[in-house]
Amino acid sequence: MGLRSPEEYKASLRDGRAVYYRGERVEDVTSHPHLGIAVDHAAIDYRVAEDPSYRELATVADQSDGLISRYYHIPRNADDLIKRSRLIETTTRLGHTLVILIKEIGTDALFALHLIAKQTDEKFGTAYFDRVRKFFEYCHANDLAVAVAQTDVKGDRSLGPTGQQHPDYYVHVVGETSEGIVVRGAKVHTSVSINSNEIIVLPTRNLTEQDRDYAVAFAVSPNTPGLKLIASPYAEGVVKSEFDYPISSRHKMIETLTVFDDVLVPWDRVFLRGEWQMAGPLAKTFVEFHRFTAISYKLPLVDLLLGSSELIADYNGTERASHIRDKITWLVSYAETLRALVKMAAIECKIADLDIAIPNTLTVNMAKWHFAKNYHQAMAYAQDIAGGLLVTAPGGDDLQSKEIGGYVRKYLGGRGDVDGEKRLRAMNLVKELTTTDFGGYQAVLAIHAEGSIEAEKMATLREHDATKFKAYAKEIAGIRD
Amino acid sequence: MGLRSPEEYKASLRDGRAVYYRGERVEDVTSHPHLGIAVDHAAIDYRVAEDPSYRELATVADQSDGLISRYYHIPRNADDLIKRSRLIETTTRLGHTLVILIKEIGTDALFALHLIAKQTDEKFGTAYFDRVRKFFEYCHANDLAVAVAQTDVKGDRSLGPTGQQHPDYYVHVVGETSEGIVVRGAKVHTSVSINSNEIIVLPTRNLTEQDRDYAVAFAVSPNTPGLKLIASPYAEGVVKSEFDYPISSRHKMIETLTVFDDVLVPWDRVFLRGEWQMAGPLAKTFVEFHRFTAISYKLPLVDLLLGSSELIADYNGTERASHIRDKITWLVSYAETLRALVKMAAIECKIADLDIAIPNTLTVNMAKWHFAKNYHQAMAYAQDIAGGLLVTAPGGDDLQSKEIGGYVRKYLGGRGDVDGEKRLRAMNLVKELTTTDFGGYQAVLAIHAEGSIEAEKMATLREHDATKFKAYAKEIAGIRD
Amino acid sequence: MGLRSPEEYKASLRDGRAVYYRGERVEDVTSHPHLGIAVDHAAIDYRVAEDPSYRELATVADQSDGLISRYYHIPRNADDLIKRSRLIETTTRLGHTLVILIKEIGTDALFALHLIAKQTDEKFGTAYFDRVRKFFEYCHANDLAVAVAQTDVKGDRSLGPTGQQHPDYYVHVVGETSEGIVVRGAKVHTSVSINSNEIIVLPTRNLTEQDRDYAVAFAVSPNTPGLKLIASPYAEGVVKSEFDYPISSRHKMIETLTVFDDVLVPWDRVFLRGEWQMAGPLAKTFVEFHRFTAISYKLPLVDLLLGSSELIADYNGTERASHIRDKITWLVSYAETLRALVKMAAIECKIADLDIAIPNTLTVNMAKWHFAKNYHQAMAYAQDIAGGLLVTAPGGDDLQSKEIGGYVRKYLGGRGDVDGEKRLRAMNLVKELTTTDFGGYQAVLAIHAEGSIEAEKMATLREHDATKFKAYAKEIAGIRD
Amino acid sequence: MGLRSPEEYKASLRDGRAVYYRGERVEDVTSHPHLGIAVDHAAIDYRVAEDPSYRELATVADQSDGLISRYYHIPRNADDLIKRSRLIETTTRLGHTLVILIKEIGTDALFALHLIAKQTDEKFGTAYFDRVRKFFEYCHANDLAVAVAQTDVKGDRSLGPTGQQHPDYYVHVVGETSEGIVVRGAKVHTSVSINSNEIIVLPTRNLTEQDRDYAVAFAVSPNTPGLKLIASPYAEGVVKSEFDYPISSRHKMIETLTVFDDVLVPWDRVFLRGEWQMAGPLAKTFVEFHRFTAISYKLPLVDLLLGSSELIADYNGTERASHIRDKITWLVSYAETLRALVKMAAIECKIADLDIAIPNTLTVNMAKWHFAKNYHQAMAYAQDIAGGLLVTAPGGDDLQSKEIGGYVRKYLGGRGDVDGEKRLRAMNLVKELTTTDFGGYQAVLAIHAEGSIEAEKMATLREHDATKFKAYAKEIAGIRD
């Protein structure tokens, strides 16, 4: 055991899992023309551990298992969080702004499960903590890729689980045997499920007593009977040209509608079952870790929005125009404020139970909100700086054409000796980030991934101590209670 | 002569024009799998004239030519402008938010040419006006589709034509014969050129005396020797599923890099040649008309952003959530403020020379800026309202699959009896508008088409009479000059 | 009877009304050092009717009463609304951005009372309409100044009238005699009550059956026993220097806490009493008219924010700096979009019952929201353009000083021959608009007067017909119900 | 020597300095009704050193002078900067959001002078550093209050010193004697000059060779012959009621137009004289330190905007309304993002020459810009949350009145048992912060103090390393230079 190679990782995905794409069963995700890109992309998390340039950041020495992936290192202090953040940022940079996620999200869930399992055991006399600990050891010892399925399909989103048209709109326990529990329902937005080794399932919200059967957390292997992974065809239409699509032709992440058609989960993989009071805290604690992952992996994206805008402005000859400088300044501040908040969230972490360091929740949520609420404006500025050629330019095939390639090279040149090819390459980068399906994917993730904008706002307010601020106001106003 | 049928229009496009797509020459644009969609879409401008529901709006009785397309009716007053605006809005609605443009833009240019040709003749003793008038009569008598090529490739955008690396970075006259002038250079962003009958070429900016050869305006047929239309492959990857891509599978507009490789233009089609003082006014006057076209055709787009957001909120069961109401209210105000300004621009028009009604330039530019500067926020709200399924949902093939279709239909249902199919249809509409290549196309058009955001700001300031406002300030401040 | 002179108006205010200012009873508001400014300001509404330059706009011929104030002319069509709007704008311009209000608000209430009294009579068999009509005739025949008291003090604003700590937190009927009703409670924000001839009292919100006694509307004279007008000392500290305070030294509006300490209201002045279903409609209908008044009187304010910014930029020598141009462009668009919406609200009015023209409610609310939500940004830009001297400059006394006046005149000069006095005069105008108590007053009015920002948003959404917009979405999405 | 008491500080200000207020010479600033408030306020910087609760933060042990003010401790590392920041924040909290400044700004200038004097000496063979060091020792040994005069009056702001109408629009050297230099001109915005012991004069911008005589830096005592301090009467009208004006009745800062009417400056107080190349660097280095001071002292202000908004929402009973929560969340994020950036600027400081720690300039400028560009929106939200009573409420005198006090107390009560007095106290706090002259003062300072918004933007862009960001873009785009 110990660190796996990218090849070992890929081989582990050929296990009979029920993956569907555009209505068809996919036998081998690693060789599928679209899904295979996602597998290759995900392998970055394994490649960095082998690469001498990244090994020190990507791995840590563990007392029991020798060198393990740093992702599986439970953060104990600010420095651990800073390094974890830097690793996430680094692999995402290698993924050309697309997060890898196959170890990031799973460990976020596992850290949260440690904390909540312990609290649940203390409160309800259950024995979840030991199961969590063992499962965690199994994952890190085998260097596994782990997905997390949290968001239920929800039906009418104004209602909880029990008021719905179908009882199955939230995943729930429908039976129990000596071997384990039987679950039914479906989760959406399950990232990297088709190319992970385990899927951790968590509740998605606070529950009430009547929702008891919906209070369930567990882990399953993707090839478990009854589990169906229906992959989204989103961005299927992308042509595989690195010239025209410099990012999405090589990097992809796949989400599934994850259906639990009466799936049996063995008892030792059940981490919550009926303790409805803990569903909310578990959901929240996972998100606390996961939003820190999120703000870490957004850094290369905002850096590239900035860098590609600066590059195309340079090529267009407009770098010194006052309105261009204005927009670039805005992008600088957008990116660097995010960077400062990410680091501050680590520095001002809270050491929780079990000596686990939790990134500062207020700062994490402000950072995420800062990122999310300004993202579309950042896109708009990048488009504004780049120009209309984003959507009207000829493509790589035109540049290669004997008949017309010369026209394209000549006429689409920019300032000085920047020829049409160079300029189109820079242009296509802004195009990928802001106008193609990939750009749309990043934009929607900005708003919805790891909790929506509204969720970040609620968390920001919740983490704020109003009493302290009101007290200062009362003091100056001369109000005595 | 008189109105043409859609079929006649299509037939007219098979004339040997040199169109290129992804590096290959296209023999017949009407039957090409991608370009053909654009041709079908454009035919809407002909279909409305035949359709009894739209005929009254789409046509006018002309004294010499009988019933002609309303587009060719020179606006004489506010009411004419209101009707022209309504026609543009109506055809764009039929085009599912995508403007048709094959008569809109050409007539915008022709109205401007009338005004500027007359001024040029008066100032320089030339005889352009008569050429313009005849060409205009030829176009409306034959019910032609007319494109406009204005934006030069520009090279270093901080420099004018003469300071560039290549003299050809702006279209210019390189020779003259008894038959006409010979032009060289290239224009970008030429919309509907591959499927029009004429291309009007206009200068793109103010020029100086040394730029004399760049001061040129004319019309050419797309099949003129030396003219190359290099079509942009943008959005080529779209899969032709109406379910997944409800708009772009049926509606398309194509832009070209339009290369003039020593093209001979007959004298009777030359509308400016050397009078550099008129290049700026011509560019500006065209844009004055064209931005009014633009704000008219943006109405269905903002209406649909609003309507699809309301529909998906309804299906999601979130219509009454306070933050959803807040975002919808913003979208209502965004759309309806635009609508009010469009109408006011017509009502407060200026009757210019030749009895041509020019929409109020200040109002037009404010309207355009209002639309453009808020567009990305509108997209963000639509995405926020719709949810992450925009980019993670299964597709139409999944819904049709015997094996898994049932899961999709069941689990992606919304409030009440809204099943998965209905909800995905609504979701896919927001997806098209905000996350796919089509959404990206509309977003870039919002910022750059008909002049960039910065251009609209400059026009807004230029049209404003500061003296009047300063006078009020001086009066109150007690300042006497 | 007929039009009154300013002097007659002032004389009419010396009637024993119980006005309090800074804890003291004020015997004569017209001669009070602070309140008197408000009286002089209000007299503008009488002065314009005498001034030949404004008489045509300010008056109309009435069949029964000869020449009457245009304010008392019930609007019948778009043109009437446009003229009413222009009159309000004009008097506010004369009031140096401060609305006059003494006829504007009262007639807004009277128009609404006409409509609601008629509906109430039809629905409940009451006889309010005739009382309203007679009271209206009395007001216009005597050319009266009429205030409106609407906003109850409200106590806990999350509760309606009946759930409060005190039953008196909303004005209500506490008794009834043969002569009339007895009312108790208090209203806040009652503008111009100290200098009006009548006060119309309206309910402030929707009511429920249990709130029956709170459903009351009536009119009282300010000197009615039991009525106490407690004037706000806000902005009391302003020094009366026209140089330093070019606006507030000459223009003022006073609000009162208006206390009804068991006030008897004669039956012929009671316009609603118990018909709780009509309280909401009456409140809303008044506001529909009053917000149109509001957007009309905001025009001089936004014009002056723009004009004074342009003037000081000119004097500072920064008019051509790109960031200054950018901010001024924003201010132009802010002001002119408001102007366009005001006019469009009149043009697209609805002709209601009794042939009364109601300005387009959707447009009015969008206009108001546009004004309100951007107002503080407009202030920020004006301050940014003007510079720090706004709060650090010497004053008029310094300029007059023999010892140091020369320094001020010399050193605070601007571009060219703009000396310190001219520059300070321009500076002080921006100061008044944005940094003094007067600026704060306008800022709070922007947000709260005539309904808060949130109220405008709610009205905008309510007036919007979602069905139409959803239908377009369904059509394109291929959804059939 | 050593620390001075507040009384010693006040006594030191009675030295014959030429202070003018509203056109009159002020003999003793400490006893003047308006200026005296500013003196009392400033004394806080002395009081904290005596107060056991603050002494540890406010003082440090110095090897030569025993206990000295921490302000005079040159920062050597992040921790020193954090403590300096915390001290500035703490005294400003005691100053009820108004910075004290009499030691803060002077030491900012002195730190910068150390760095630039050394560089100048190295480059030009001058001997400024020793003078600076001695002057610094003199200041800290005597615990002096030190103002800084930087901004020249400037005349036409589009021109440098030599192109102006008057040569005196920037302070310059007009003569030289054996004793020192003679300077003429005027500075604006000189804070705390009337109540400091020394005034340090710095250049305000980059200069060219022809501006040599404008390249001058020095220190003078306020009572130096020829020096005139013309105090701004801004906010003079404030009534001294703690109830109505809880902040400005007790806290004030005074700016002067500071006129140098041929003032002789002894050689040992001249720190730059003719080395025009160093004017820009000196201006910039001062500002680098001073903006860190600024963002530190803005913290109590944004905290109080938040806290007072929360308090009044609580009293109004609206704390749980969704739109109120939304606005409060925004304020939380506004305040806490600023706090995070302030701390990060210290943590990521740069250790410069002479072992002086300079706060991270990029972060400082982003923090300042974040504060400044959002400040007016924060004011708007606070006003929105508080309600219209901000400008229409009765005052403290009304509450004290026997006749009407009861009405005010009763009718202006809020939720539960919050009576009118409590609610008005909370209301008056928001009023002070957002609607009175004091609120206007803070608003203008937000935009202009320590450099304008545009200056912060320029610094942000200048401190950003575009090359690094472009390189990442090129790597992904496949561009090789």
Which characteristics define this entry?
homotetramer; 17 helices; 481 residues; six-stranded mixed beta sheet
Distance between the termini of chain A: 64 Å
Q: Tell me the quaternary state.
A: homotetramer
Question: Can you count the helices of chain A?
Answer: 17
Based on DSSP secondary structure assignment, what is the total number of beta strands of chain A?
14
Into which percentage range does the β-strand content of chain A fall? 5-15%
Description:
The structure is a homotetramer of 481-residue chains. Helix content of chain A is 48%, strand content 14%. The first copy, chain A, has helices spanning 6-12, 35-42, 44-50, 55-58, 78-94, 104-124, 128-141, 279-316, 322-347, 361-386, 389-392, 396-400, 405-411, 420-434, 437-448, 453-462, 466-477; strands spanning 19-21, 24-26, 59-62, 66-69, 146-149, 172-176, 180-191, 198-201, 216-220, 227-231, 255-266, 270-273, 350-351, 357-358. In chain A, the strands form four sheets. A six-stranded mixed sheet of chain A has the order 2-1-10-11-7-6, with no helix packed on it. In chain A, β3 and β4 (66-69) form a beta hairpin. Chains in contact: A-B, A-C, A-D, B-C, B-D, C-D. Chains C and D meet through β7, β10, β11, α11 and α12 of C and β7, β10, β11, α11 and α12 of D.
